[in-house]
Amino acid sequence: MGEPARTLDTIDLGRIFTADDAAAFEARFAGVGAPEMLATLIPELSPRLAAVSSFGAESAVLLHMVAQVNRDVPVIFTNTQKIFGETLAYRDELSERLGLTDLRVYRPDPRLLAARDATGLRWSYDPDGCCDLRKVEPLRRALAPFDAWISGRKGFQAGTRAALPRFEADEGRLKINPLADWDRARLTAWFDEHDLPRHPLEAQDYPSIGCAPCTSKVQPGEDPRAGRWRGWDKVECGIHLATKPGEDPVF
Asked: In whole angstroms, what separates CA 242 from the centre of its chain?
């Protein structure tokens, strides 16, 4: 498993999704639960559909739902080379447990790292630039063969995600957020019902887990993502755009 070969017939040749398309999907699946929605969408959008996962604290729920429909759905993981060792071990454990057959691991371009982050310390003075090098650029390469992708974001994770829709148009692709309206209680119930393994760092007060240098423990009463980029005016890595209450969703 790893980064697949790229050929001319698999690069950026698919359907272009617009904001109107995203709104139409939103209306079509209004009131439909996440498992049922995925059971319809995965066959409909395959083979040009992928799931993107950080293998973080809550990732098992969405990946379990996807695997119940089709274990062959490509699952993209971006190894920023700043990831907790516990996350890498959890990725392997969860992939084996769920029987995922197509885990695709993408890494930063070493030439870009040599030019822009030779010391490996860009996170300490330019976290946006670091995320762009280590997350955004690799994911853009990973998504090149796909028209649509599944994200594990939830509205409760932070105030900046409170107005999260279930469908967005993102760089011409349909981005699907099946768990946008799920809360922690529903996630916990799914973990318990299906006996899913927990990320080992969750028990150490890490409810949201990203790169090791930019992830800290969360105190009681804080947003689950309060430990990400603590001390910086930054709430997302650049893969996603923030949507605040009262704003129109960014499609």
From this structure: 14
Give, in degrees to the nearest 5, the angle at Cα 93 between 92 and 94. Answer: 95
- Distances, alpha carbon 33 to alpha carbons 19, 30, 37, 39, in Å: 22, 9, 6, 10
Q: Is 130 part of the annotated catalytic residue set? A: no
What's the token pair of residue 90? 């959890």
Q: pLDDT per position in the chain (251 positions), as tens?
A: 555 544 334 344 589 999 999 999 999 999 999 999 999 999 999 999 999 999 999 999 999 999 999 999 999 999 999 999 999 999 999 999 999 999 999 999 999 999 999 999 999 999 999 999 999 999 999 999 999 999 999 887 554 555 799 999 999 999 999 999 999 999 999 999 999 999 999 999 998 899 999 999 999 988 888 888 888 877 666 564 444 333 333 32
How many C-beta atoms lie closer than 10 Å to residue 34's C-beta?
A: 21
The single residue of 131, 211, 214, 237 carrying the catalytic annotation is 237
Q: At what angle do helices 59-69 and 184-194 cross, to 10 degrees?
A: 60
Nearest to 143 by CA among 180, 94, 104: 104
Cα gap 88→55, rounded to integer Å: 8
Phi, psi of 61 (to 5 degrees): -65, -55
CA-nearest of 180, 156, 182, 183 to 167 is 180
